Every structure is written in C-alpha cells, then in structure tokens.
Amino acid sequence: MSSLLLRVVLCGAVDDGKSTLLGRLLFETDSVASDEVVASLRASATSGSRAEPGTLDFSLLVDGLESEREQGITIDVAHRHLWLPSGRRAILADSPGHEQYTRNMAVASSTANVAVLVVDASRGVREQTLRHATVCTLMGVSSLIVAVNKLDAVADPSRVFADIRNELFGRLQSLANPGGAALPPATITFIALSGLRGDNVVSPSDALPAGDAPTLLAALESAALAQEAAHAAEHEARQARPAGAVDLPTLRLPVQTVIRSGQTRRLAGHIARGSIAVGESISVWPSGTNATVIALGSPEDATWAMAGSSVSVELDREIDVGRGDIIIAATDTDLPVSLAHLATLVWLDPDPLDTANSYVLRVGPLEVPARVENVRFVLDLLTGDQLSGHPLTVNDIGLVEVTCDRPILLDSYTTGHDTGGFVLVNRLTGRTVAAGMSLRPLQRESDVTRHTFTIDREARERLNGIRSGVMWLTGLPGSGKSTIADELERRLFERGIRCYVLDGDAVRQTLSEDLGFTPADRAENVRRVARTAQLMMDAGLIVIVSLVSPFRADRDLAREMFADSDFLEVFVDTPLETCIERDPKGLYARAAASSSQTQMTGVGQGYEPPLEPDIHLDGRAPIRDSVDALLAAISRRP
Amino acid sequence: MISVPKTGRAADGVLDALEAEAIWAIREAVAGFNRPVILYSIGKDSTVLLHLAAKAFQPSPIPLPVLHIDTTWKFREMIDFREKTAARLQLDLRVHTNPAGLAAGVNPFDHGSDEYTRIMKTMALRQALDEGGYDIALGGARRDEERSRAKERMFSLRGPGHVWDPSGQRPEFWTTVNTVLTPGQTMRAFPLSNWTELDVWRYIRRENLDVVPLYFTDERPTVLRQGKPVVVDDERFIFEPGEKAVMRRVRFRTLGCYPLSAAEESEALTVDDIIAELATSTTSERAGRLIDGEGASSMERKKLEGYF
Q1: pLDDT tens string A164-187
Q2: What does the pLDDT read at residue A65?
C-alpha cells in the first residue's frame, strides 16, 4: 500500500545505541521542542544517565516512560516525527532491543516501509540483530538501512565496517525466509556512523569510512523520495485509465460497517488493495452476490479511490452484506478461500501455543474461531535451522497450519498486508497471542471431500413448514429451565411442529458421560451440545437446549456456531434463594451437606448471567407466560 | 545542526493519508465495540475529531454520544462554542461534573493543580465512563504532544479502574484491532495519534473549520503566573495581594481550565498566521499547560490513574 506517510522502524539489539541515535537525529533536525530538550538536560543530570554531566543524553529525549528512564532501557515503541530537509515528514518508531520486548518491535515493523537496523560495531552481529532482521523481512519492510554504530569506539573502523557489512549482507541474502512468506527488502543500504558523536547521522564526517549513503538522514530522505514517486506513479496510472477499462482483479475492501440513512445504505471500509470506481461491477465475499457501484464517498463524493482510502460505497441493489465481508472485483474468481491456511506465526504471548485451544482469528474486521493444528517447524534464528517437534513459545517464529471454523478469504501476505496478516487472540485473557502472515490456502482432504447431499436444510424446512432453529435456555440449577422446555415442546408438538429437547441431565448421562464439572469439562460439554443442536437444526427441527451453561465464554462459543437468526439465547432468571428453596433434584441440599469443595453452580462455582440475552424470562413468573413469550419469539423470526 | 522548514511538502497527500487512517480508526471503534463514546474537550483536536466522525458516517449523523467532562472552570467562550457545535452537528451531548468535587468546592486555586485535576478531571472521567457503561472512549490525543503519549497505541487498553499499564500494552498490527475485552477492561482510541499540531491546523484550514476564538490573538486581561500570562476569565479568579489584571495581546496554543492554561503573546489573527507561527516555533504545545509543570513524568502518572 502506498501512502505519503513514511513510516520508519528503528531496531537492533539492546545497547546498540538506538535511542541515542534517534535522539541525535531528532535534535539535529530541529524535530524536538526546546522545552523537551531542557527537560531532558535536567534529567541527564539527575537520572542514572551515562552521559557526562552537563551534556545532553540523547536517549532521554525519546525514552518516554519513567520506568524506561530509571532502567535506562526502552520497553515499548516511541513514535516520533522527523522533519526531513526537503520538508517531508517521517514517523519514526523507536523499538526496544530486549528479547522480552520483541513483540513491541514486531508491532512497529508491521506498518513500516523502512527499517533502520542498528548494529554496535564493537559487538558485531548478535542473535537479536538477526531476530530483528528476520522480523523486518517477514513483516515486509521494503527498504532496509543498516546503521553500523559506535564506529568511533573501535580501533580500525574501516576494517570493522567492512567485516560487519560482509557478514550481515551474506546473512540477509540467505536470511531464513520460511516457505517464501516474505520478499527480501528491495534495497539494503549500509552506513557507518556514530550516534554519540553525530558522525554521518545528519552531517557527513571524514572520520568514518564511507557507506552507501553519506548520512542516515540522506538515506531516509531518498527512501521518502522513492515512496513519493511510487505513490505518484500509482495515482497517475489510475487516473490515466480510460473509463470502463477493467481493473486487474486486485480489489479488497473489507467492510467495517454499514451506514444507513433513509433509503440509502453505504458500505464503509478502508481499501486494503487495488482501487474501486463508480460504475464498476463488484462482488461481495462470502455471499458471491454481484452489484454495481453507483456512488462513492472518499469521504466526499468521488469517482474513484485507491488503496489507503477510507471510503463508503453505495450499490445499485440491496444485497446481504455486513461487517467482516469483503468487497472484491466481480472479475475476481480465483480467491484464496479455505478452512485451512499455511502461515508464518510470530508468537507474542508468555503462554505457549496450545494446539487444542480455539483462538479468535482476526483479519481487519473479519473474525472467526480458529485453531493452530500443526506446527511444521520453528526457526532457529542463529543457524537458520528448521526445528520440528518444537513448541511455539514467546518470541518464536514458526511455520504453522491454521484451521478456521468456517472458510475465510486470506490473501498471501506478500500480495496484501492488511488482508494477509492476521492476529490470534486468546478469548479468555483477551491478549493478542500471535501475529500471522499467510503464505497460501491449504486444501485439506477432509474439507474438500465432504459430500454435498441433494436434500439440504432448506428442503427439510419446506417439508416441515417451519424454519428450524435453536433456543438455548441458560440459568441456575433449579431455575425452571427443564419445566419451561418441557411445556414449550408440548405446545409446539400440539401445533405439529417437529422439535426436540436437549436436556443437560440427559446429555450428561450419554453424550458427555466421560466429562466432569471443571470449567474445562463444562466448556467441552457446551461445545458438544452446540454441535449436536447444529445437526438437529440441519435436520429441520426446532431444538430446545436446556443447559446450566454457566460461563459466558462457553455460551458465546456456542452462539458463534450459528447464524444470528438461527440462535436465540434465553436467560431463565431466577434468584439463587428461590432455586435453593425449590431444589427439585436435591442438588443444593447435597452440596450444602458435603464438606469438600463443590463444583455446583451457584455454590462452588459462579454463574455468569447473559449480558444481552435475546429473551429474558423471570423464572418466578407463571410457566404459561414464559412459554407464550418463547412461542412469540419463534414466530417473530425472519 | 540544520534548520528544517516545517512546511510539509506534499502536504495535502499527507493530510489525506492521516484523514483516511483516522476515519478507519473511528469506524473500527464504533463498529467493533458495544458502547462507544467520543470524549470532547472543545479544543482544536476535538474539533478535528468531531469533523472526522461526521465524515466517517455521513450522510448519517454522528451515531454515538459525545461526552464533555466539565470542571466548571473552562473558559466561557469554550462553553459557548460547545453549545453551538452541539446544535450544529445535532450531537447527543452529555456533560458530566464530579458532583462530590462540585459540592466540596474543589478549585485550582485552593487545592493545587494536582489534586484539582485528580478530582475534577480524572475522577470525573472515570465516573462518567462507568455510569455510561462505555466500553470504548475516543479522544483527540496525539503522540507528538508529550513523551508518554508517544508511547501509546492507537487502540489503548485500560484495566479495571481505567488504569493504563504502559509496559503491558497490547500489540497492534496493520489495520487489525483486537476488540476482545475481559470483565473490567475498556478501550481508549486515539484516531489522531499520528497527527502533529501543524497537521491539525493545516487540516482546520483545508476543511474550513470553526475553532474557539481563544486560539486567535486579542486584547485579554491577564496576570503572570510562573512567568506566563494567564487570562482572568471571570470573577472567581483569585488575585495575589496587590495583583491587577493587565491587558495583553495573547492567544492560546492549548485550551483547558482557564486558571491552568497559559496564553502566549502573539500576533496571530488567522489560521494562516497560526500556521506560519508554528512553522518557526521551537517550544512544544504543552509548554502552555501549567498542569504539567510538576515534572517531566506527571502526564504519565496521571494517565496511569485513568486520565485521558
């Protein structure tokens, strides 16, 4: 994606002098305000700074957190604006060098066009240098500037510079690039400099050997120029295109939201790839419906817009489209859609990858439950070896197979960062545990050979005369779920509607006889019941689930398996005291009598009430009223 | 040392890119969360943020409420501007003041800027966010404002009690936002993260936006505090013994509570004048906030407690 904002990541191993170099760069280009300089001078005098008293410790200009200044290290990325001599502006992301903060460095490089990799001349190329070089390459940085720093402190700067250059250049060429996930940087520039003395940072110096560019600033300026030229060329090419000419089918416009105003509907999103124009035919993934663009806001009225624009699109007809869908060119037929995708994963979380866990996979606004079923190898960054049978732990980079709960469109990362890069989220902790870059979709035997039968759900629904669906009753033990389910089934049956009650107790004695009542077992029980309900719904039934299902996350997981209109969550809301009083199965009495720790919901384990149930029933109301409400909800469905 | 003209080459292209990024972030905050709210401080950044929010959802009106934390010590012209803006954009404006602070008469003169800010701004903000049940709050903060802001993500997680954990921030990749919140967590979003002060003014010029007149130079009654002119906005101002207001030609680079906002002497009468002035300015915008004077890290400490 081309944009006129040059984004630069500054990286390299700890203590190689990144912050000092950046501080020097900002100071000498007048990119930092005088009151900030004064504040830093004051801090230089009082903190654990290693600078001579009375001189400016440039690193303090950029280490923005108190804990960073105290420890003299960088923890997270600082974003600073650098004014280039031409008047152009770059956003510099100063990233931490410590291995434990690699995730923050990965964040900074994901949106960078240019990486400045700092190498301490007195220490040479280190593991963290290679790790950062690898991450930059994987993240698709197009231009790499290697700043060989602290050359003022070595005996023979020319020889040291040449040695590091040769070693790193060789490494960069053969840099482990698992499975072709990334393209190597288009340009690699070596510069000999000293951040401490300022040699070859902003002003050229004769004291140091000549590199590929006179100064770091000059190298950044030429990167900015190249980017501006590329942007202008892209723009001109699009502008010069004759009206009606067919664009290469590269468009990706993920829909963030649908804007409704009176009779008009506008699909809003950020163009990730390609361009879109009024009059063009588009298609919507996954529905496959075609339509024509009749108006375009970018954000004002426009005739066309390119990647990097936030737009809103009005179509010539009302089609089914929502958040997470992707607008593509109607001519685009070869889509990378699959349940399974091969991807490079950078693991960010302290907890290692759990191949049994279901994570939330996100690509832009698209969200789907997914598992990482197979780790093909983990990369040894020092040797470039591909280690198999190795767990994926924090800061590891590996090649994996990701399997989603439904097929998704995932581009190869080299063709589009915004539609080929994804994150995995642990839904319990909410943490972003990994960043992934897709290589290609995988066709799995088990996925593609699933036979398509002639009689489908729709056909069965026609036969039954009613749309099937699931009613999920949740509530405390004794809240009245089974009583309500029983009465509801009876009333439906009376009307000749095919239905079935999946009751918690019955399931526990059959489908889930191997499970206990730990939170993990409860989650698995909910999953099995949801899958069974799905099968029954497919068979054309109204399925009434009556299950305590105390945990919100488990219920959400169940809900995600269904379309919104197929699943109604019903909260049977009865106060705990009433349940204890009723205690139809004597469970509360037994729990109270038992001296040991109990897993009984409401006593030993908590119950998380639904925040936004589709139907909220008062468990103390007459059964008939509750069932009437449920029947009304069934007939209200679209 | 080289001198760089901060005029911004290819200026419109850069503003286009910043605008597109901000609109993307606003839409993501509104569509990806359940109860979004815009935090409105009436200043120039808030003005740009509201304008972008209007653009993001046009032709619909702004589809989320707008919250102003009113300390009761804002400039009168700010409150006038707020009311005018709310009417013009048909905003669902909600104003909150910390009732306990108000009852106790907490003010910047008697309680000191630290305690006053904690009670009337930080606590008030936390109350309003909790009462509204908002899971994401959008603000106009920029990374170039201050060193700890430079460290913050565009989508910045807050733990229970709205605290910021700067060393445990969520990774943020591409245009993919992790919208999962566990109980007690909320999000703050800063769509203008990558804008500079100059970008804001150039955008105000390009889009022809109205701002509070206090940004333009005028004759105003002032006294000096910490060597800087402070405007006497109403009769509640507490003078030092023997002190009298003096008329000075001043303007504000940043607006807040009037006793805590320092003006500067200037001749900038138009947006063009302001842009010309900023291009050669060597001080940061926050130099005008008396609130930050206590130490380089005071903003960071306030943010840890839940300040915006």
Answers
A1: 999 988 887 766 455 556 667 888
A2: 65
pLDDT at B8 over 70: no
Q: Is domain A253-329 given the CATH code 2.40.30.10 in the classification?
A: yes
Fold of A6-228: Rossmann fold (3.40.50)
Average pLDDT over residues A214-229: 92
Cβ-based contacts of B31 with chain A (< 8 Å): 256-257, 323, 365
CATH H-level, domain A337-444: superfamily: Translation factors (2.40.30.10)
Q: What is the pLDDT of residues A472-512, one digit of tens each?
A: 999 999 999 999 999 999 888 877 788 999 998 888 888 88
Residue A467 phi/psi, 5-degree rounding, is -75, 130
Interface ipTM = 0.92
B133: domain CATH number is 3.40.50.620
Specify the number of domains making up chain B. Answer: 2
Could you tell me if B214 and B195 lie in one domain?
no
- The order of strands in the sheet holding A6-12 is A78-83, A89-94, A6-12, A114-120, A143-149, A187-192
Say if residues A122 and B39 touch (Cβ distance below 8 Å).
Answer: no
The reply to whether A253-329 and A337-444 are identical in fold is yes
| Residues spanned by the domain of B275 | 209-293
In-domain check, residue B2: no
For chain B, what is the HEC assignment? CCCCCCCCCCHHHHHHHHHHHHHHHHHHHHHHCCCEEEECCCCHHHHHHHHHHHHHHCCCCCCCCEEEECCCCECHHHHHHHHHHHHHCCCCEEEECCHHHHHCCCCHHHHHHHHHHHHHHHHHHHHHHHHHCCCEEECCCCHHHCCCHHHCCCEEEECHHHCCCHHHCCCCECCECCCCCCCCCEEEECCCCCCCHHHHHHHHHHHCCCCCHHHCCEEEEEEEECCEEEECCCCCCCCCCCCCCEEEEEECCCCCEHHHEECEECCCCCHHHHHHHHHHCCCCHHHHEHHHHHCCCHHHHHHHCCCC
- Residue ranges covered by each domain of chain A: 6-228, 253-329, 337-444, 457-636
pLDDT tens across A370-393, in order?
A: 999 889 889 887 777 888 888 899
| pLDDT tens, residue by residue, B209-225 | 999 999 999 999 999 98
Q: In Å, how far is B8's CA from the nearest CA of chain A?
A: 5
Is B190 part of a structural domain of the chain?
Answer: yes
pLDDT greater than 60 at residue A450: no
Distance from B236 to chain A by nearest Cα, in Å?
31
C-alpha span between B4 and B280 (Å, rounded): 9
B6 touches chain A (CB under 8 A): yes
User: To probe the interface with B, which of A9, A19, A44, A65 has the most B CB atoms within 10 Å?
Assistant: A65
Residue A244: the pLDDT is 57
| List of chain B residues whose C-beta atoms are within 8 Å of the C-beta of residue A203 | 2
Chain B interface test: which of A27, A35, A216 (most B C-beta within 10 Å): A35
Is B206 in the A-facing interface, judged by CB distances under 8 Å?
no
By C-alpha distance, which of B281, B279, B280 is closest to B205? B279
Looking at the structure, tell me whether residues B44 and B76 fall in a common domain. yes
Give the tokens for residue B64: 């989320």
pLDDT band at A451 (very low <50, low <70, confident <90, very high): low
- Contact pairs from chain A to chain B, CB under 8 Å: 201
A457-636 topology per CATH: Rossmann fold (3.40.50)
Judge: A107–B147 Cβ closer than 8 Å, yes or no.
Answer: no
Kindly report the pTM of this predicted structure.
0.78
**Same-domain pairing of B36 and B130:** yes
Mark yes or no for CB contact A310/B24 under 8 Å: yes
Query: pLDDT band for position B179 (50/70/90)?
Result: very high
pLDDT for residue A50: 56
For residue A320, the cross-strand partners are none
